[in-house]
Structures are given as structure tokens and as C-alpha cells.
Amino acid sequence: MAFPSDGRNHRDGIKVEKSIYKYKEVFESHYNKKILKITHIGGTKTLIDFEIEFFDGSKITKSLKKKKTIKNGSFDYINCSDFDPKITKNSKDIHNKIKNKHYFTREDLNKSISDDLLNLNSEDLTKFVIDKVINKYKKIGGLDIFETSTNNLYIDIKPYFFEVLENGGYLKVKNNKKINQSYMLDLFDKNDILQEDCGLRIRLHLNNGWTKLKNGGYSVLVLKLQQDKVDKILKK
Predict the structure, then answer these.
(1) Is residue 145 part of a domain?
(2) Which residue range forms the structural domain that includes residue 59?
(3) What secondary structure letter does DSSP report for 21?
(4) DSSP annotation string for 174-222
(5) Does residue 82 sit in the same domain as residue 98?
(6) Contacts with 99 (C-beta within 8 Å, 6 or more apart), sequence order
(7) What total number of domains does the chain contain?
(8) Which of 60, 37, 36, 40 is nearest to 50 (CA)?
(9) Residue 82 belongs to some domain of the structure
(10) Is the separation of the CB atoms in 47 and 65 below 8 Å?
């Protein structure tokens, strides 16, 4: 991601603002109006990376993902700990018991994470993605992707799965028969037809690792929706 969402310092924010100003004319051409100011926002509790204020008084907020190349790597749509507990009930239970000094191994926790993800029903999964991802990205005003190797800036990207899910489609976890902390997702339309691979992955893991949790430190379970194959969402 171009703007840190992990609590990095103010100096990084200033650096980001300067880099975004290089694309001021690109944004002005796209929105057909002159920009007065671009302000970095960022932070761990918001999807918003920066705000653009135009000379006409209007403002928009944006989320920017930075990739060296859109053909490799991934980015997170969301990384949250405030999800419905029933989605990961077993893992939450074991996590809490480990915090309270009950004996469980790292393998125990990983197995419970795998089981919770594989048992995640389509209705709960789809609702989570609509509530935590689609609705939030629509509210903030837009998703942009900056490809650093080419200096290309893709503005107001609307991933294909947004439309499919809003029109009655749904997601299912793809079972690869392995114990993992992440799994790819299958996308189906409202007629139960499997769509082209949309590159979505769901991940459940400890934000500060096992050692921190085992030693009584702060390490909570976080749920991510991750976009692999970034180039695919630009072709729709």
C-alpha cells in the first residue's frame, strides 16, 4: 500500500503527500477540475489514504494501493479485528485461552484457524465482504492503484466482484485440502455460475505473531481480504 496503515510516522505521510502531488495533473484531467490541496490521512482505523480538495470547494477521499508491477504481488482491501465473532469462533476461543495461560500450541491455533476458514459459510463470508469492503470503499470515494515500475496511475478502480456480489452473487472458500491461514475464494453469480478467478484471498492470522501472544503480549486475530492478480481487476 502506498500509505501506511500500520502506524508509521508523520515523516512517511509527508513523503507520501509529495509523491502524490506528482500526479496532480493526472487527477485534474480525470476529474476535469483544478486541485487546491492534497492531504495525507492514513492511519490504522481508516481506509482513507488521502483527501483531494478542489478549487470549487468539493472534496473527495481516496484509497491508494502501490505496486511495483500489477502482474505480481497483492494488496489488502481490509485488515480488521472487529469482525463478527461467529466467523472465527474456535480460533477466538483458543486465542483467549492462550491469553489466559491455558496450554495450546501454535499448531493448535493454526489448525483452528484453518478449520474456521474452511467452515465459513457462504452467507457469512459474502456479508462480511459486502459490509467491510464493498460498502466502505464505495463510501470513501474510490480505489486507485499506482504501478511504480511504469509510473502508471489507475484511478477509480471498481473490482468486478463488487458488481457480482451487489447483484446477488456470492463467495465460497476454496478448499485446497491443506492446513493454512489463508485460502483463495471462488466467486459465483446469482445463477450459481462460477466466475473467472477474481484473485480474492481470505486470511486470518495474528497481527503481532505467535511469540508475542505466547509471552502475554498484544497479538490479536485479524481478518484480511487480499487481492492477488491485481492486473485482472483492471481488465473488467
Answers:
(1) no
(2) 1-67
(3) H
(4) ---SS--SEEEEEEE-TT-PBPSP--EEEEEEETTHHHHHHTT----EE
(5) yes
(6) 213, 216
(7) 2
(8) 40
(9) yes
(10) no
Q: Give the side-chain half-sphere CA count within 13 A for 127.
A: 9
Report the C-alpha gap between 207 and 213 in whole angstroms: 10
DSSP SS3 for 34: coil
Q: Is the pLDDT of residue 34 over 90?
A: yes
> Does residue 147 fall inside a structural domain?
no
The Cα angle at residue 194 between residues 191 and 197, in degrees rounded to 5: 145
| Residue 229 included in any domain | yes
3-state secondary structure 156-172: CCCCHHHHHHHCCCEEE
Q: Taking a C-beta distance cutoff of 8 angstroms, is the pair 167, 189 a contact?
A: yes
Question: Are both 184 and 201 inside the same structural domain?
Answer: yes
pLDDT over 70 percentage in the chain: 89
**Rounded to an integer, what distance in angstroms lies between the CA atom of residue 18 and that of residue 187?**
38
Which of the four pLDDT bands, split at 50, 70 and 90, describes residue 9? very low
The pTM of the full predicted model, rounded to 2 decimals, is: 0.83
Question: pLDDT per residue over 179-209, tens digit each?
Answer: 999 999 999 999 999 999 989 999 999 999 9
Q: Measured at the alpha carbon of residue 16, what is the angle toward residues 65 and 209, in degrees to the nearest 5?
A: 60
pLDDT band for 83, please (50, 70, 90 cuts).
confident
Tell me the pLDDT tens digit for each residue of 101-125. Answer: 888 899 999 999 999 999 999 999 9
Cα separation, 128 vs 132, whole angstroms: 6
